[in-house]
From TrEMBL:
This is Phosphate ABC transporter ATP-binding protein. Pfam families: ABC_tran. The keyword Nucleotide-binding applies. Keywords: ATP-binding, Cell membrane, Membrane, Nucleotide-binding, Transport. GO terms for cellular component: membrane. It comes from the Archaea. InterPro entries: AAA+_ATPase (IPR003593), ABC_transporter-like_ATP-bd (IPR003439), ABC_transporter-like_CS (IPR017871), P-loop_NTPase (IPR027417), PstB-like (IPR005670). One of its GO terms (molecular function) is phosphate transmembrane transporter activity. It comes from Haloferax litoreum. Residues 39-279 form the ABC transporter domain.
Length: 284
């Protein structure tokens, strides 16, 4: 997107679609083990045309935790993430089978409005991509599009504080979001995603385009966000998954979920030899 175009990318789609129907800090594993399940996948299969991208995926994601999705390129991590807020609906050739519940309600039921669902399940993408609007307007974009009323000044301040950006931008709220650094832009996108008060935040490699300092800020932020939200994050960075997540799902080639467990267990004592080989760098 250039600075002059209106937003037309997936981010805007999420923002415009997010109009209703549906993190952990590195809190200790034991804290999350008993947490309530917010998302449950049951035998999810996804095809793009004739190609199967996910096979019989089942997992339970606890609320207020960080769940990392790791695995080699093309193993279906992003596809799974997009099942949660039905972004795959937007891909003509994609077909999803199985049940995926959010607080017990199958998001694929006929009576679920995907627009409403995406209000409850926000998304942050790989490339920081604020709209060519002011910082303030970026944060309130989803609210305006969805016709959500409220004290916008307060929501902007609260969202930017939660995204750990307020102190850096409070004196320039009406300057362009595009003038921020990459890391600030990504935190602005996070502020925009949380302004509509979702329950779940999906993050697709949110730090992969950032330098180490900005990456570390995003990691700290993800941990903080998990106090209020359930965060599901795709990452290629295994150290990052180990640092910030409570649960880790390891997908391997062919769209198979090979292991899903507490992050500590996955990294210290995985059940599967294939997972051990992957995390120790023997392949992938
Ligand atoms: N829009 C699409 N149309 C057709 N095939 C797709 C589409 N999106 C993904 N795929 C295919 O589905 C499989 C899984 O892709 P996906 O992007 O979910 O994997 P990933 O693990 O997230 O990969 P990466 O780590 O490289 O982002 C791949 O074979 C990919 O080519």
């Amino acid at each position: 997107m250039t600075g002059t175009e209106d937003p037309t990318n997936d981010e805007m789609l999420v923002q415009t679609d997010v109009s209703d129907g549906l993190s952990a800090s590195s809190s200790s594993v034991s804290e999350t083990t008993n947490a309530e399940t917010i998302i449950r996948a049951d035998d999810i299969n996804v095809w793009y045309g004739d190609e199967q991208a996910l096979q019989n995926i089942s997992m339970e994601i606890p609320e207020n935790s960080v769940t990392a999705m790791i695995g080699p390129s093309g193993c279906g991590k992003s596809t799974f993430l997009r099942c949660i807020n039905r972004m795959n609906d937007l891909i003509d050739v994609a077909r999803v089978e199985g049940e995926l519940t959010l607080r017990g309600k199958n998001v694929y039921d006929a009576d679920v409005d995907p627009v409403a669902l995406r209000r409850r399940v926000g998304m942050v993408f790989q490339k920081p991509n604020p709209f060519p609007k002011s910082i303030y307007e970026n944060v309130v974009y989803g609210l305006k599009i969805q016709g959500i009323e409220g004290d916008y000044d307060e929501i902007v301040e609260e969202s930017l504080k939660r995204a750990a950006l307020w102190d850096e931008v409070k004196d320039r709220l009406h300057e362009s979001g595009l003038d921020l650094s990459g890391g600030q832009q990504q935190r602005l996108c996070i502020a925009r995603a949380i302004a509509t008060d979702p329950e779940v935040l999906l993050m697709d490699e949110p730090a992969s385009a950032l330098d180490p300092v900005a990456t570390s800020q995003i990691e700290d932020l993800v941990e903080e966000l998990a106090e209020d939200y359930t965060v599901v994050i795709v990452t290629h960075n295994m150290q990052q998954a180990a640092r910030i997540s409570d649960k880790t799902a390891v997908f391997l080639t062919g769209g198979e979920l090979v292991e899903f467990d507490d992050t500590q267990k996955i990294f210290e004592n995985p059940e599967s030899q294939r997972v051990e080989d992957y995390i120790t760098g023997k392949f992938g």
